[in-house]
């Protein structure tokens, strides 16, 4: 079935899973979700110009351009893997608890200086996004860069069997998706499934030599170590982050537009991978220095007389602490933090939110606003801390701010970028 479908795909190499975004002569895969049945949109997709539709319910067969399969999602994944096997190119996969998308974007910026690359768009890094990224690669692609996300065990292992990467990198192991992984040990095991695949298939791993957990798990496999220490195969020096990260390599200074010392390892990974693939240092420097973050990820926005560090795309205890440490170390005079709930922490939610509530009061931050149901259950006697269980309560009590530096950090579901409207 898949070889026959692949013959059709080669004639119509554009894939869509959204009937609202049909392009002429694409193939529409009628996926199902909790609140929708893609099969019911198949005929609509054909009317909008799709060449073929892939469905898994016989009742929706409407023409010879309707292809009935047992399971649309599995067919999409199998087709992507079949396509990957035809691609004679190296593929780099990366995962990790924090910094995946930023690191992927940096790696793509660097490698595209020398190669034609295809990389995951945005954070389409799950069991649907990974196949779609693979299927977007074509004969012009020289290197593929695949971001892989997971919130439970065996997910990275599964995505690895679809992607069949030649190279891999794990950004870090952090307290993310504890609800699904069960514990920090579960996070490490889950993310390390990428290492296990690469080791089992005699592939190659890039390793942050400053992370003992990574070093420990990659001793017996082909690897390339990078970091601040001279013991690494590639030494990259951290200079400063006040507020933008500055680094040096071989007497060349790289001044990024990324805020926070926690972004140094992301930048270092892009430098290391670029160096490994033979990108010239001047091109690496240009790629990193011209990369500007977007989508609420460590963006700096000037709003009236205030400077805003907007990091509202996502949050977990590890990334929250790193952002706060960096914010505390800034030399700005008036610093105000707006922190929103961290999601998917399961039974650890109460403990982790209380830890942040206690920890933030020890830092050089003038005022702290804690927002959300979980933070609303925490206790603080510190006078500089204000707790609002809902965003609406923050909005109702919000006072105009002048000449301050603001950190806005929270999980995506909190949508704390709404604070910009209050300014």
UniProtKB/TrEMBL annotation:
Keywords: ATP-binding, Cell cycle, Cell division, Cell shape, Cell wall biogenesis/degradation, Cytoplasm, Ligase, Nucleotide-binding, Peptidoglycan synthesis. GO terms for molecular function: ATP binding; UDP-N-acetylmuramoyl-tripeptide-D-alanyl-D-alanine ligase activity. Its EC number is 6.3.2.10. Residues 95-273 form the Mur ligase central domain. Signal peptide: none annotated. GO terms for cellular component: cytoplasm. Its main location: cytoplasm. Residues 297-411 form the Mur ligase C-terminal domain. InterPro entries: Mur-like_cat_sf, Mur_ligase_C, Mur_ligase_C_dom_sf, Mur_ligase_cen, Mur_ligase_N, MurCDEF_CellWall_CoF430Synth, MurE/MurF_N, UDP-N-AcMur_synth. It is found in: Cytoplasm. The keyword Nucleotide-binding applies. It is an enzyme of class 6 (ligase). Residues 15-81 form the Mur ligase N-terminal catalytic domain. One of its GO terms (biological process) is regulation of cell shape. HAMAP family: MurF. Involved in cell wall formation. Catalyzes the final step in the synthesis of UDP-N-acetylmuramoyl-pentapeptide, the precursor of murein. This is UDP-N-acetylmuramoyl-tripeptide--D-alanyl-D-alanine ligase. The gene is murF.
């Amino acid at each position: 079935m898949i070889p026959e479908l692949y013959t059709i795909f080669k004639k119509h190499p554009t894939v869509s899973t959204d009937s609202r975004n049909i392009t002429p002569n694409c193939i529409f895969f009628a996926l199902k979700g909790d609140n929708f049945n893609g099969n019911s949109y198949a005929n609509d997709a054909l009317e909008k110009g799709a060449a073929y539709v892939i469905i898994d319910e016989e009742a929706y067969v409407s023409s010879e351009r309707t292809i009935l399969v047992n399971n649309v999602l599995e067919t999409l994944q199998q087709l992507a893997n079949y396509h990957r096997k035809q691609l004679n190119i190296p593929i780099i996969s990366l995962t990790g608890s924090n910094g995946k998308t930023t690191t992927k974007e940096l790696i793509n910026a660097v490698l595209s200086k020398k190669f034609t690359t295809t990389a995951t768009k945005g954070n389409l890094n799950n069991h649907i996004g990974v196949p779609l990224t693979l299927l977007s690669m074509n004969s012009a692609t020289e290197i593929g860069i695949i971001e892989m996300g997971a919130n439970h065990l065996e997910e990275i292992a599964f995505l690895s069997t679809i992607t069949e990467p030649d190279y891999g990198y794990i950004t870090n192991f952090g307290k993310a998706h504890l609800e699904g992984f069960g514990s920090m040990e579960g996070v490490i095991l889950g993310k390390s499934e990428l290492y296990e695949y690469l080791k089992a298939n005699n592939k190659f791993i890039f390793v942050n030599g400053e992370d003992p957990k990574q070093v420990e798990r990659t001793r017996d496999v082909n690897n390339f170590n990078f970091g601040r220490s001279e013991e690494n195969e590639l030494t990259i020096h951290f200079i400063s982050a006040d507020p933008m990260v500055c680094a040096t390599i071989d007497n060349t200074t790289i001044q990024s537009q990324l805020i926070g010392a926690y972004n140094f390892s992301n930048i270092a990974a892009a430098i290391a991978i670029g160096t490994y693939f033979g990108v010239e240092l001047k091109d690496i420097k240009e790629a990193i220095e011209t990369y500007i973050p977007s989508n609420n990820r460590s963006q700096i926005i000037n709003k009236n007389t205030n400077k805003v560090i907007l990091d509202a795309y996502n949050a977990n205890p590890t990334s929250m602490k790193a952002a706060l440490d960096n914010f505390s170390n800034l030399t700005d005079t008036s610093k105000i933090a707006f922190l929103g709930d961290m999601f998917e922490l399961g039974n650890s939610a109460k403990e982790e939110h209380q830890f942040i509530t206690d920890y933030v009061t020890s830092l050089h931050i003038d005022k702290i606003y804690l927002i959300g149901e979980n933070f609303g259950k925490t206790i603080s006697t510190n006078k500089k801390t204000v707790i609002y269980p809902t965003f609406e309560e923050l909005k109702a009590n919000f006072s105009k701010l002048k000449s301050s530096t603001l950190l806005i950090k929270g999980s995506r579901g909190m949508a704390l970028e709404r604070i910009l409207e209050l300014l």
